[in-house]
What does this fold into?
Amino acid sequence: MMEQQPVGADDSADARLACLNLMHAYNNLADTGQHVLIADLFAEDAILNANGEEMAGIEAIRAGMRRRTAANLRTVHTCASVQFGRGGAGELTALSTLSVVILTDQPQTLAPTIIARVNDAFAPLPSGEWRFRRRTLETLSQPQPARPSGAR
It folds into this structure.
């Protein structure tokens, strides 16, 4: 688990805002079915651990996102409880909670389908832009598979 440290005045609010925007861009691209564009939010040597799958490097991330596009799920991702910290080599880190609702065509009361703890590390590029260096999503809760009728 990432050790969180308070972010002081010496850490740029602009950098934290840029990283927060990356987190929201990831969610918005997933929710609009543009998964392949998510890879552009990562550094070339980044690592994404999602749903038990490790994708190392931007091309592996791009391939993983193509598979998610093929799944054709309609989702709403909501990020909450973001806490920034410091990493090594000029990185910023963030720990947050992610709720994902998978939408269906059935009328129903919606609740999060998946709740995950997200552990991020962000790296500045020479251009001054920020990218994900590492993103790990640890599922805390998800629905159990439906039991056959009459099963206990």
The beta strands are 42-50, 53-56, 74-86, 92-103, 114-124, 130-141. Residues 13-31 form the longest helix (19 residues). The helical segments are 13-31, 35-38, 58-71. Confidence is low (pLDDT under 50) at residues 4-10.
